[in-house]
Amino acid sequence: MPLISVEDLSFAYRDREVLHEITFSVERGEVLGLVGPNGCGKTTLIRCINGMLSPRRGRVMLDGRDIRIMHRREIARAMAYVPQSAGNRTAATVFETVLMGRRPYLNWKVSPADEDKVVEALTLLDLEELAFRRVAELSGGERQRVMIARALVQETDAIFLDEPTSNLDLCHQMAVMEILRDLADKKGLAIVIALHDLNLAATYCHRLLVLEGGSIYGCGAPAEVLTEDMLRSVYGIEAVVKRDLPAPYIVPLRPGCLESGV
């Protein structure tokens, strides 16, 4: 049984339909990349899956259970969420912010085991030296790594990340993606990541789900999904997909709109 099943999911903001009859599943130990142009519904889809938004139609099943009948605390113990941008107004330190990821498990006080998990996550994300800095003082990339660390200490079966590498330099982009891939491969977590960087997605994701206008254009292994035809149809660009590397590599040539005179 898949850990996450999305069945005929549709969502609308008032009269504007954003997602239309979305159906797919995510297995344990899998990294699924959500890709597609701006406004295609990636963020909305993640928020529907983790219960932040209520679909107009369809349902989301978590390990065989409909999330609509699950308590918020149950969902928080099963699914962690890293939003697109981390807030910068908090007065909390990095350590305190990451510790908040333990909230679904805390009762009256923080245990040494909880603190040890925070230290482990800070070390994994190269944040040890920033532990007692205020989050508001950090760069955008540092704040993003803090939010990922907070998700890790939540110890869930699934992690959803919305553009987690957008504020990171190239080295930290690769480091974060390698950590997420290792969590899937070695610990059996289901990882769902909305990404704009198709080459990064091709390198680290087991499968890619391509959204176009709120519907699924295609879903499969990167080598199957990343084609010149898809890039032309979905992204409106002319590109070459190089296939002489371990993962497909996209070389953009020109925007297709130039041919139409736009």
From TrEMBL:
Top EC class, one word: translocase
Catalytic activity: an R-cob(III)alamin(out) + ATP + H2O = an R-cob(III)alamin(in) + ADP + phosphate + H(+)
Superkingdom, taxonomy of origin: Archaea
EC number annotated for this UniProt entry: 7.6.2.8
SMART domains found in the cross-reference section: AAA (SM00382)
Keywords from the UniProt entry: ATP-binding, Nucleotide-binding, Translocase, Transport
GO MF annotation list: ABC-type vitamin B12 transporter activity; ATP binding; ATP hydrolysis activity
Domain ABC transporter, residue spans: 4-238
Role this protein plays: Required for corrinoid utilization. Probably part of the ABC transporter complex BtuCDF involved in cobalamin (vitamin B12) import. Probably responsible for energy coupling to the transport system.
Protein name: Cobalamin import ATP-binding protein BtuD
The species this protein was found in: Methanoculleus receptaculi
